[in-house]
Amino acid sequence: MKKIFFVCTGNTCRSPMAEVLAKSMCKNENVFIASRGILGNGSPASQDALEAVLRFNLDLSNHKSKTISKDELETATIILTMTNEHKDLIVYSFPEYSEKIFTLYEYVLKEQKDIQDPFGCDFATYMNCAKEIKALIEKIDFEKI
After folding, report:
1. 49 pLDDT higher than 90
2. How many angstroms separate the CA atoms of 119 and 14, rounded?
3. What is the DSSP letter of 42?
4. Which are the catalytic amino acids?
5. Are 18 and 6 in contact (CB under 8 A)?
6. Number of neighbours of residue 72 by Cβ within 10 angstroms
7. If we measure between CA atoms, which residue out of 116, 114, 138, 118 comes closest to residue 126?
8. pLDDT reported for residue 102
9. pTM of this prediction?
């Protein structure tokens, strides 16, 4: 089974939105998709993240943030981070997995660009973030991962 992990800071906004969006688009039953944080602590998804994905008829109401573990890094097929900083932090701590860690922009468009954190911003910012993530994930060929 292929395993994809989306990673952001606290696993309450960007990576959970990426997880549910990817799950809604991936039709391959042999692909496991999850989200994690650098500092996940069991918190629910932010209210605005819940509302943003609801606009796509998706649900984050049962989400609880988690920190990515060494075991998950080891078994992952690919780790897609929201920013270069997230990527750098993981690679610094676990250089042995650097070959399978990319930012979402880097993996999809070969660009060094970050998905900005909407935490603390207004709903429009969350919605724009969700749309940005969705547009990138739509370009992923889940059969080729």
Report:
1. yes
2. 9
3. S
4. 8, 14, 117
5. yes
6. 17
7. 118
8. 98
9. 0.98
Structure tokens, 20: 């549910």
Residues in the chain: 145
Are 87 and 103 contacting, i.e. CB atoms less than 8 angstroms apart? yes
Half-sphere exposure (Cβ direction) of 38: Cα atoms closer than 13 Å: 18
What the block records as the tokens of 121 is: 């911003």
CA 24 – CA 26 distance, rounded (Å): 6
81-135 pLDDT tens trace: 999 999 999 999 999 999 999 999 999 999 999 999 999 999 999 999 999 999 9
Alpha carbon distance 86, 138 (integer Å): 22
Rounded-to-integer distance, Cα 91 and Cα 135, Å? 26
Burial of 92 (0-12, 13-18, 19+ CB in 10 A): exposed
CB-based contacts of 108-113 (< 8 A; 24+ apart in sequence): 108/136, 108/137, 108/139, 108/140, 109/136, 109/139, 112/84
For residue 40, pLDDT over 90 is answered with no
Contact of 17 with 52, CB cutoff 8 Å: yes
The first and second tokens of residue 108, run together, are 């999809």
